[in-house]
Each structure stands twice: as C-alpha cells, then as structure tokens.
Amino acid sequence: MSKLPRRNSGHSGCKEAATGMTLLEVMVVAAIVSILVGISGAGIMGVLPNLRLNAAARDLRSDMQQAKVEAVKRSGFCSITFNQDIGGTEWDYVVFVDSNESLEYDANKTIISRNDFASYESGVAMDSVNFANNTSGCPAVAFTARGLTENHGGGFGAGTVTLVNGRGDERDVVLSATGRIRID
Predict the structure, then answer these.
(1) In 10 A of CB 71, how many CB atoms?
(2) Exposed, middle or buried: residue 141 (CB in 10 Å: 0-12, 13-18, 19+)?
(3) What phi, psi does 73 have (nearest 5°)?
(4) Closest by CA position to 127, among listed 81, 83, 170
(5) Is residue 4, in this structure, part of any structural domain at all?
(6) pLDDT for position 171
(7) Which residues span the domain enclosing 113?
(8) Structural domains of the chain, count
(9) CATH number reported for the structural domain that contains residue 76 in this entry
(10) Nearest Cα to 151, choosing from 111, 104, 83, 84?
(11) Predicted TM-score of the model (pTM)
(12) CA dihedral sign, ordered 132, 135, 140, 141
C-alpha cells in the first residue's frame, strides 16, 4: 500500500489556547459577587445593633473597673454618677476622683471618663439605673480605697445599669457590693 502524502497547511491542526475571559464569563462572575456581597451586607446590618450594645456594656464595665483601680491607687473615693450634667451637656455617666467623698460631681473634681451612649448609634441607651441617688438626684456609686462599693447613704453600692438597643435587646451591667462587675 502506498501512503498518501501529507499536506502542510502551515499549522499543526491544534487550536491555539484562548487567553483572557469572554464578556459572558465576566458578567456571570460579577453577578455572583454582587449576590454574595448583598447577602453578607444584610447579615452584617442585622448584627450591628447587638455589636454596638455589647460594646457599650463592655465600655461601662471597663470604666467601672477603672474607677475601682483609681480608688485603690489613690487611697480614696472614685465615684460614678449617671445622667450627670456638665456645662449644659448631659452625660449618661461620669467617672471622677471624689476627693470629698460626696458622690457629687463639681468642676473642681478630676474626670477620669464620661460617656454618652447615643454615640454608639443603633439606638443604644440606658433603660434603667438602680443605684441610690445622691443629693442632686442623680444615681451614683463610689468605689472606696479598698475597692468596695458605697452609696450616698454610706451603705453598700450594689446596683445594675440596663442598656438597650433600638431592637429591644438588653444588657445588664451588674455591680456587686464587693466591687465585682459583670455583664448579663
């Protein structure tokens, strides 16, 4: 048998590998990415109110702990008053060095911390505060030089601050008479 001669057409007969992506492929990938971003964005927006509420509760606990440390370090009182007006601005709470042990803030006292829960957004606010009031009518509590709590009448200063967000979720910051602080 005789073999037929091969023709040489200038290429090997294999297709060249395509480079890049087609417009259809780009559009499909863009659609998938948009759907994933939409789903994750909605999930994150649902979680934000609780994250902000938890942050506010942790900040209050941290500021209470700082007040306790300052009282022990300075061998004196460090007080926290709630709904305190300073220069026409009402703060949800103010932590200050209480040199005369009155549980009353005045301009001569050193402020350690102050906070307004509205800055957390998502409707974070104080729902209730059940510490005894000082003579100005503000709920107040002090830490003594031994790290224990005391109220305006000289008794134990145990109490709870309830924080709430715009969805109605709550966190309690609980202060025991022995100075233990926890979030429920």
Answers:
(1) 25
(2) buried
(3) -60, -40
(4) 170
(5) no
(6) 98
(7) 23-183
(8) 1
(9) 3.55.40.10
(10) 104
(11) 0.77
(12) negative
